[in-house]
Amino acid sequence: MSDILSKLSAAIIEGDFGSTPEMAETALEEGLDAGEILNQGLMPGMDHVGVEFKAGNMFVPEVLRSARSMQAAMDIIRPLLAETGIDQTGKVIIGTVKGDLHDIGKNLVGMMCEGAGFEIIDLGKDVEPDAFVEAVKEHSPNILGMSALLTTTMRAMEQTIKALEEAGIRDSVKVMIGGAPVTKSFAEKIGADGYAANAASASDMAKEFAA
Amino acid sequence: MAENLSTFISSKTKTVEISREKPTVIIGERINPTGRKKLLSSLKEGNYDVVRSDAKSQVEAGAAILDVNAGVPGADEEPILKDMIHALSEVTDAPLCIDTADVIALETALSIYEGKALINSVNGEEEKLESILPLVKEYDAAVIALCMDDEGIPPTPQDRFEVAANIIERAGKLGIEPADIVVDPLALTMGSDHNAGRIAIETIELVVAEFGVNVTMGASNISFGMPDRAFINSTFIAMSILAGLTCPITNPLEEEVNIAIQAADLVMGRDDFGMNWIKNYRDRQKNS
Predict the structure, then answer these.
(1) Are A95 and A80 members of one domain?
(2) pLDDT, tens digit, 9 for 90 and up, residues A118-175
(3) B-chain residue closest to A153, CA distance
(4) How confident is the model over A91-97, as a mean pLDDT?
(5) Which domains are assigned to chain B?
(6) Res A1 pLDDT > 60
(7) Dihedral angle at the C-alpha atoms of A13, A19, A20, A23, nearest 10 degrees?
(8) Fewer CB within 10 Å, N side or C side of chain B?
């Protein structure tokens, strides 16, 4: 592998967000294309972060720094990615459900999925079922991810899935859910396609769904 | 500096005074099914044994008030909350902090509760002010005021203070005394913003200086995403007590945080002759 790409991976793992844009530029100057930089530089770095986070060896602030490093490099290569027509892994819509203001977990899921090469459409927090439905219609994502941190807001996930059914678009998208009170059996009960216990698992699951 | 106010919360037979002149009052957080599978499944079955044993263990570990939350997914909170309050009255005289976002469940709970309850919670959202504050007045309760409003959670201590000031003013218009408002500055997580602790503490300082009100806070959220959470929680709670925190919502079974609270009380001169500290030391020796 090119030296600059392994440096870029290492900088992402280190969370060195001051250096990654310059490294991405250097890589381009060396004649690498945007797809190579994404697939062989940025994504292996974020993959490593995901594994270490899942194992309890890296912590939230470090993951946030790594994600910021990834995004800083993405800002450089994104226009070129579009130009070269290289498809991203897929599209993920994420949001924290109606009545719930907790967004750290949801944000981490967004960053890990972006690290896995997905395009992320983040609807924010306190998202109404209809807003999820509209976004799915507008963006045709591969995956819809919902987060809830309260036992009292979990039922909004069910409402959202029902709203997707009513709109006739439930089968167009894989629905995955997560959050402290959410369980696998709850996911099954409300007809979600998957439950992820943490951000790294969510990103792994998104990759499976989009494959 | 405003004069320090006392908030009195009571059950049928016991009154707890919350004040900066007294040792810190622990509001036990465990009677809440969020993230507690055993409690959740027992509540779903209509079995209140876990509620009863959680009450006893928390009171033994030092909780003076018990938070009660009936948030069972998909279920109607009102009957569950009612049954939980009845079950608790059988096993403890600790006053209750009634924790629900469901106004109907809240009103029913207040109507059957014997004593002066602490309501968890109101915030600066117009809808909350209009639905919760009249209940505080009608049932002569006290209420936790979260420093957030229709715009969300303000990022600065000054703006959080403004939210608290607005709630206190609105409550005052209904004849609710500031002593019956317990402000929660909101401790977010340092995992995603390393200023979260400082912002909460500065909010406490502003609110206490202006109004002298009592202050509560959930103090375990702060360390989310970090390793060695107990050290962070302990230090944060001790620093917050210095700033004016008087009745944290914690798990009293977490020994490190409990010890930090006891040590902070001793340092603040709220433990006469250090007798609580010594007694708690002896209890730990006996149990170890």
Answers:
(1) no
(2) 889 999 999 999 999 999 999 999 999 999 988 888 989 999 999 999 999 999 999 9
(3) B73
(4) 95
(5) 7-283 (3.20.20.20)
(6) no
(7) -120
(8) C
Q: Do B194 and A61 touch (CB under 8 A)?
A: yes
Which range marks the domain in which residue A149 is found?
90-210
Q: Are residues A142 and A59 in the same domain?
A: no
Tell if the CB–CB gap between B73 and A154 is shorter than 8 Å: yes
Q: Using an 8 Å CB-CB cutoff, list chain A residues near B189.
A: 60, 104
- Identity of the residue in A152, A158, A181 whose CB atom sits nearest the CB atom of B35: A181
The amino acid that residue B173 corresponds to is K
Does ipTM top 0.90? no
Closest-CA residue of chain A to B227? A59
Q: Are B207 and B167 in contact (CB under 8 A)?
A: no
Residue A24 parent element (H or E): helix A20-29
Nearest partner of B147 among B196, B191, B187, judged by Cα: B187
Indicate if A66 and A102 belong to the same structural domain. Answer: no
Q: Are residues A66 and A129 in the same domain?
A: no
Number of structural domains chain A divides into: 2
**B228 part of contact set with chain A, CB < 8 Å:** no
Answer for the pair A61, A92: CB distance below 8 angstroms, yes or no.
no
Together in a domain, A101 and A152: yes
Cβ contacts (< 8 Å) between A61 and chain B: which residues?
A: 190-192, 194, 225-226
Query: pLDDT tens-digit profile of B78-137?
Result: 999 999 999 999 999 999 999 999 999 999 999 999 999 999 999 999 999 999 999 999
Q: In what order do the strands lie in the sheet with B142-146?
A: B214-215, B181-184, B142-146, B118-123, B96-99, B63-69, B26-31, B249-250
Closest residue in chain A to residue B153, using alpha carbons only: A101
